[in-house]
Write a structure and sequence with these properties.
heterodimer, A: 151 residues, alpha+beta, Glutaredoxin, 4-stranded mixed β-sheet, elongated, B: alpha/beta, Rossmann fold, Ubiquitin-like (UB roll), 5-stranded mixed β-sheet, 23 helices
């Protein structure tokens, strides 16, 4: 089932990270399954433990099923200065989950991350590929509500 | 080619798109055609206009009028008043101080000269402002040795943080006889508070590509990679597009301009690890491994990517190269002071009125950067300190507001220029909280390869938590300095050596903040 993805990449180890990105982005629950790790291992002829090591090293990869929308809230100093901790508290309250957990309806996963490079608009978060800046508690509630409305 | 009476420039960046820039573009276009102005007024997408926090901004040429916080509802009025009747809409004008600061920026721009002026997705606009002339000159009229000599002479130093002379770096790799050499661009911009490389890539991707081409020619590489953060989606898209345009114009590929020189570039995407900004960790990541740094020597310049000679340069460093080749080392040296030549892109954030990025000559003071380019302090707050150089940087107190910002002057105060991030803090900021946030960051980002960093960052975090909870002792301050100093001496790479600077400077400059929590 991963043949479509493999076709795009030569079977060399330096493509491992891009293949993993591709697999994760194409999974509805945005994670890398054990089965996928096995297939990649065979395709690249790279041991499973190496792939596991790579997945756990990088913050963007996950081996746990995640929600449709991954919220990555920046907790680096510039965002901290602008009150990202309050935003984090509000998000946890609003979604009723803790760090790295997924809501029951499978819509949201809450993660913390390092600097997203949009510090001029701190505090900042990313939801999937979109950046949301100048966050306030009210703004966060509205963003969550809007996404829920779209489904 | 069509000629227009006016051009409306729309700054497209991740932040302005979030603020609705795409919708505004559509609304503008439909309103203009509704009033039959579509052949007189052109709407152009361009890169970031250079500042933040003001929603969608429009710049109108040749009138040189800047609008801010424009919404879709404003469009009919704007088109009718400004473009039909020729009366700028006062209500939407950016405030005068902002406009002045903005125009003032332009005179000294070098890396950012085209950002916010040309369409970053159209190679012809880049060529139209003199783009790829330096590449042609470097390829057809200069010998590789001459390029290196010119860059050496210019005094250009690495803009990623360490400040290593760029020409010298190239000259180590150039004489090595190897069938394959590589250029790797470090666009893994992870230093908290730094976003200059993102805006360079979003605003003028061809500038980076042109610099890369010249670098490859100088030390003899036929393949270049840009290692870019996975989070920088718009940069990845724009650079991919720019590389494809270069290929179709024959600026990249086989036998470029009939010179017999072959060159191609590729983009590699990271997956979220701060340590991959360290050059050997970055190379490990490119090879498909965990991003653990390698032992040096051998240095990447001798044995790097796949054990071939590899030069790793920062985005901003390379974006300086085309201008140096075009205008010459002498011109470049005329900017800046104290052995620090050229311009530096700073990112300003925190408690300033106008956060954003600015490019100024080396050697300008912190006070000038904040007042002239940052529009002063936010809501008249009093300046307390500034974190210069990102999390691995130094917290300067108000005593150092008039120190010149260049490598040598800052060294006298054991400070660093680092990546050029300047986070300004107002009077109410508590340095204990700031240091706690910095140490939390390092604890999280330590890669775990060497124990001084793996255990040291955890231990430092434990101590600062203790102080933060009011359970610390005064000796704890000295032990943090001692421990982080031991980490400088024993850690494997720069990450473990980084906590020392913020710890030492914050305790030295703001000891009272810490003592308040202790007593």
């Amino acid at each position: 089932m991963y043949q479509e993805i493999f076709k795009k990449y030569e079977p060399t180890k330096d493509n491992l990270i891009y293949i993993l990105h591709d697999i994760q982005d194409n999974h509805p629950q945005q994670y890398i399954t054990e089965e996928a790790v096995l297939s990649v291992s065979k395709y690249l002829n790279v041991p499973i433990n190496h792939i596991y090591g790579v997945i756990t090293f990088y913050g963007m990869f996950s081996m746990k099923a995640r929600g449709k929308n991954i919220i990555r809230l920046c907790e680096s100093p510039p965002c901290y200065l602008k009150g990202c901790d309050n935003i984090y508290r509000k998000l946890k309250e609003e979604l009723n989950i803790k760090q790295n957990e997924t809501t029951e309806d499978g819509l949201f996963t809450l993660e913390l991350c390092a600097c997203l490079g949009v510090c001029g608009n701190a505090p900042v978060m990313m939801i999937n590929n979109d950046i949301y800046g100048d966050l306030t508690e009210e703004k966060v509630v509205k963003i969550i509500k809007d996404i829920k409305g779209e489904k | 080619m069509k000629f227009y009476r006016s051009h409306i420039l729309l700054g497209m960046s991740e932040t302005s798109i979030e603020a609705g820039a795409k919708k505004i573009e559509l609304a503008l276009k439909s309103e203009l055609s509704k009033r039959n102005l579509q052949d007189e007024i052109d709407v152009l997408e361009t890169g970031p206009l250079g500042f933040f926090a003001k929603g969608v901004c429009l710049k109108v040429y040749p009138e040189n009028v800047l609008y801010e916080n424009v919404t879709v509802e404003d469009i009919p009025e704007l088109v009718e008043e400004h473009f039909l009747k020729g009366r700028p809409v006062k209500r939407l004008l950016a405030t005068t101080t902002r406009v002045e600061a903005y125009d003032f920026n332009y005179k000294e721009r070098n890396v950012l000269e085209n950002s916010g002026i040309i369409d970053p997705e159209d190679i012809e606009e880049y060529i139209g402002v003199g783009g790829y002339e330096a590449w042609e000159k470097a390829l057809l009229k200069m010998k590789p040795e001459e390029i290196i000599a010119e860059v050496k002479e210019s005094g250009l130093r690495g803009r990623g943080g360490a400040g290593f002379p760029t020409g010298l770096k190239w000259s180590f790799t150039a004489p090595i006889d190897s069938p394959e050499k590589h250029l790797v661009i470090n666009a893994d911009e992870g230093e908290p508070g730094t976003f200059k490389d993102r805006l360079i890539m979003e605003g003028d991707p061809h500038k980076l590509l042109e610099g890369m081409m010249i670098a490859c020619r100088a030390f003899g590489a036929n393949k270049g990679f840009i290692y870019i953060r996975g989070e920088y989606k718009l940069c990845i898209e724009r650079l991919k597009h720019a590389i494809n345009q270069c290929r179709s114009y024959g600026i990249l590929g086989q036998d470029i301009f009939g010179s017999g020189f072959n060159l191609d570039f590729d983009i590699k995407v990271g997956a979220g690890a701060y340590v991959c900004g360290e050059e050997t960790a970055l190379i490990e990541s490119l090879e498909g491994n965990r991003g653990n740094p390698r032992f040096k020597p051998p240095f990447p310049g001798v044995k790097g990517l796949w054990q071939t000679p590899t030069v790793v340069n920062n985005v901003e460093t390379i974006a300086n190269v085309p201008t140096i080749i075009n205008k010459g080392a002498e011109w470049y040296k005329s900017l800046g002071v104290n052995g620090a030549t050229g311009t530096k892109v700073y990112t300003l954030m925190g408690d300033v009125a106008m956060p954003g990025l600015t490019e100024v000559p080396m050697g300008i003071t912190l006070r000038d950067i904040i007042n002239k380019y940052g529009g002063g302090m936010l809501r008249g707050k009093k300046f307390k300190g500034a974190l210069v150089g990102g999390a691995a940087g130094v917290i300067l107190s108000d005593k150092l507001l008039d120190v010149k910002m260049d490598y040598e002057s800052l060294k006298e105060y054991t400070a660093v220029l680092g990546s050029g991030a300047i986070m300004v803090m107002g009077e109410e900021v508590d340095m204990v909280e700031m240091l706690w946030s910095i140490l939390r960051f390092f604890r999280h980002e330590s890669c775990g390869k060497c124990f001084p960093c793996r255990l040291g960052t955890q231990q430092l975090y434990n101590i600062i938590c203790k102080i933060r909870d009011g359970e610390g002792k005064e000796e704890d301050l000295e032990s943090m300095i001692l421990l982080s100093d031991a980490m400088v001496k024993s850690s494997f790479c720069a990450l473990g050596q980084s906590p020392y600077m913020p710890i030492k400077s914050s305790i030295l400059n703001f000891r009272n903040d810490f003592l308040k929590r202790i007593k």
